[in-house]
TrEMBL record:
Belongs to the short-chain dehydrogenases/reductases (SDR) family. Keywords: Oxidoreductase. PANTHER family: OXIDOREDUCTASE, SHORT-CHAIN DEHYDROGENASE/REDUCTASE FAMILY (AFU_ORTHOLOGUE AFUA_5G02870), SHORT-CHAIN DEHYDROGENASE_REDUCTASE FAMILY PROTEIN. InterPro entries: NAD(P)-bd_dom_sf, SDR_fam. This is SDR family oxidoreductase. The lineage of its organism: Bacteria, Bacillati, Actinomycetota, Actinomycetes, Kitasatosporales. It comes from the Bacteria.
Length: 252
């Protein structure tokens, strides 16, 4: 059995990706930060569908906790999956932050940098010894980093997601000697708990936003999760170094 590590999988895109990956036959180690209940529900859903999953806590913005997390992953691999390595890594965990450039504080800038760029960089580095040769990595970015989607207030968030797009290409180059593929997926606006449940709190904005999508609606987590699962699977075996927009034709 192949095994995947999916960060930020207690809800939204990460949870969908974990379910889709499990549906393709992989065991899943999924992480959560504050939403332990959501993580337990995700594990239960995977188990009810016949899969195997374990939830571990991880703060992607706290690099000091990464060695202990690596040890916890190694323990789970050994005890649950009888493995000393895993095959698929999905760097999905993160959080939003919105402020106009003239209002952005250094504290907010550093918090976003730690969670959206520094965290995924050093988490991947920390887990690399456990990632099997021939494995696959998917980094979840955002189409806000692309030229046709420039929303005022997201300068730091989008810039950091753009940095992950570049990082993805460099990871693909450097890890290729081990046969490890690395790609990123850039969702558009998606109905998740993102930005403090903004869509749930302001449902009136959904219909208006949908007009900017060629396919006539905003995204759902499963629109993205299935693509992530495909990319880490054998179906994605000849794709590496790519940033794939999954947005239903946003601003097409």
């Amino acid at each position: 059995m192949k095994v995947a590590v999916v960060t930020g999988a207690s809800s939204g895109i990460g949870r969908s990706a974990a379910a889709h990956i499990a549906g393709r036959g992989s065991g899943v180690v999924l992480t959560y930060s504050a939403n332990e209940q959501g993580a337990k529900e995700a594990v239960r859903e995977i188990e009810q569908a016949g899969g195997t999953a374990v939830a571990l806590r991880l703060d992607v913005a706290d690099t000091a906790g990464f060695p202990a997390f690596r040890d916890a992953v190694a323990d789970v691999l050994r005890e649950t999956f009888r493995r000393d390595s895993f095959d698929q890594l999905v760097n999905n965990a993160g959080f939003a932050g919105m402020a106009m450039i003239e209002e952005t504080t250094e504290q907010a800038f550093d918090r976003l940098t730690d969670g959206l760029f520094k965290g995924p960089f050093f988490l991947t580095q920390t887990l690399l010894p456990l990632l099997a040769d021939g494995g696959a990595v998917v980094n979840v970015t955002s189409n806000s980093a692309l030229p046709h989607v420039t929303a005022p207030g997201y300068s730091v968030y989008a810039s950091l997601k753009g940095a992950v797009v570049v990082l993805t290409r460099y990871m693909a180059k450097e890890f290729s000697s081990r046969g490890i593929r690395v790609n990123s997926v850039a969702p558009g606006a998606t109905r998740t708990r993102f930005a403090d449940d903004a869509f749930a709190r302001h449902p009136e904005i959904v219909d208006e936003m949908a007009k900017s999508f060629a396919l006539g609606r905003i995204g759902e987590p499963d629109d993205i999760g299935g693509v992530v699962a495909m990319l880490v699977s054998e179906d994605g075996r000849w794709i590496t170094g790519q940033n794939i927009e999954v947005s239903g034709g946003h601003n097409l």
